[in-house]
Amino acid sequence: MEGEDVKPTVTLVSSDNMEYSISKEVAMVSPTLRVMLEGPFKEKSGRVELPGIEGNVLAKVVDYLQYNLQYKFANKDQEDIPEFEIPTEMALELLLAADYLNV
Amino acid sequence: MSFYRSRNRGRGVNDVKGPSSALTQFLRDEGISAQEIRTRWEKQQAEKQESDFPNSVEHGVETSPHTEIRDLSDDNSSETDTDENTHKLRMIGSLGADSDEEEYDEEVVPKRRPEPVKTRNNQSDKKKTQKLLQNRRKRQKRAAELLDRRVELPTLQELCIEKIGSNISKWNDETDEQGKQVYTHIRTVLGGISTDNLNNLAKALCKNRALNDHTLQLFLKTDLSHLVFHDCSNVSFEGYKALAVFSPHLTEISLQMCGQLNNEALLYMAEKLPNLKSVKLDGPFLINEATWDQFFQSMSGRLTEFHISNTHRFTDSSLSSLLRHCGEQLVSLHFCRLDSISNYALIPQYLQNPQFHTLGIEYPYNEEDVSDMLVMQLLEQVGSHLRSLSLNGCLELTDNAVVNGLAIFLEGNDQLECLQLEELVNITSDSLLYFFKTIPLPRLSRCSLKRCTKLTDDAIVELLLNPAKDALEDLNLNSLINITRGTFEIMNCHNLKHLDASFVRCVDDHVVKTVGSQNPSLQLMEVFGDNLISSKAPIREGLTLIGRQSDSI
């Protein structure tokens, strides 16, 4: 995570008040977060509350956002792109969160 | 590697070629299975290891096909034969005949031939093998992704659905009847999910062949208004009835491979789904003539889209019933591989809806039934507002249908998005050139001219000069053997994403480079059978080539 960087950061807050600080660039991978952060909403301040998503699920979502940003433009032939692992028990909730965040 | 194997099989023995060689046939007749031979071979290898006999397989002892066949035919009768030499000869013979051996020579493959690796304790060799294996796995994974046409990074939703789908199918196989109540729970959890993802889940389940009456429960009691099942082969008629009762909001339903859909279930759906207006069925061969008639009667006034394929029980009288009861409202009609229909000529007079937008008549049983005249009449009726036209496999169609049909009645139509004219072997460039020259198609995003083997450069060049070039996303030029490099050099479509240029012999490295640089959105290019493309072809970043000869797995 690049929380301490000079780059602008965004804080995602889960339903159980866990906070995840990520760079704005990472958050922008999600179209939903992008609209929230760019639109005339209070989230513009950089603090996004996601009461529908639990802490452990949100952690996984953050992992994916970073994974996506890192490998989106990677050349599959030259670079080995690792699988993104999803724990079975989390799959349903993660799907709901992914659905909401449109990633 | 298994993808390529069938092509090589049978080579070398009597020069027999084709999917089923004489040897294969012989083995099948004699009841000799490859598994049996392999088991014996593995046993033999173990014995050999003990007796310290190094790599006998690679000595390349020549045996005639006759020896081999005799040896193999002896297999059944000599189960107790323990003579090592006979075994050895047999194995050498069979391996020499099967091309598997040459494939293995390219790389070390411990999976099928583990012994030589085990005997070497050399550390560096082990590492090398591991690396090879890793590379191979990587390539296999990549190939699997390509087969799924997955060129972009998967979304988190796709990953989750894949996971859920595979778990449901796994769990479905393992648990017994009582345990299956859990679906209700899963569905409760899925309650908050978008209907799009529910359809994606249906897709994932179908892909795993896991859609059955139990998993179907996931889609009940939902607000789903449209539902697509790509593989319903395991859904019983009870399942369809449950679907009709518990998903009353359905307006559009697409059931592919719905072989178990019976008369009762179809009528039940018509009765219980008051909003149903779009029905797409593939393979409903249990539905008989009388039921079709009844179905159309009850759908009269609301059926607007009807697609049907792969059933011999949909007859001329069913067609007539469809048109009489629902013809006026229809906006989309698609027939494919209906072996009992000959009277297509009935269709034009009934298609009265000015909103009619999708027409497909594909692979008629008798090609003569879909004539130039019929196409002209159809287009006269609906041509001006068509969005999709598909005439694949109507082999009798000639230039006349294009010049006096498409070129006249599509005039002024700026809505056409999809044009499919596959396998129209009688159509020449002259007519298509005229068509693409006279009719601007500013929205044509999908065009397939696959296997229209008489087409030459002129037709395709004209298409690429048509306003369609800015809208084209998917272009299929498969097997157009007469087109040359010049055509690809002027291909400049900034929205083109998928190009099928398989079996177009002129496609070489230079063409790949040009096409890649001139079509910035191109992601996927199919080049099967284009043997002029070398491994050194310059491929633009973001573009994937499928089917190149030099890419082995």
TrEMBL record, chain A:
Instruction: Extract one GO cellular component term from the record.
Output: nucleus
What family, per the record?
Belongs to the SKP1 family.
Keyword Nucleus listed: yes
PANTHER family per the UniProt record, alphabetical: ELONGIN-C (PTHR20648)
Q: What is this protein called?
A: Elongin-C
Q: Which residues cross the membrane?
A: none
Chief localization: nucleus
Q: Where in the cell is it found?
A: Nucleus
UniProtKB/TrEMBL annotation, chain B:
What SMART domains does the entry give?
Answer: LRR_CC
Which Gene3D superfamilies is this protein grouped with? Answer: Ribonuclease Inhibitor
This protein's name: Uncharacterized protein
Where are the compositionally biased (Acidic residues) regions?
74-83, 98-107
- Record region (Disordered): 1-141
Matching entries from SUPFAM superfamilies are given as: RNI-like
Basic residues bias: start-end ranges:
1-10, 128-141
Please note every region of biased composition (Basic and acidic residues): 27-51, 59-73, 108-127
Give the GO biological process terms. Answer: SCF-dependent proteasomal ubiquitin-dependent protein catabolic process
Any single Gene Ontology cellular-component annotation: SCF ubiquitin ligase complex
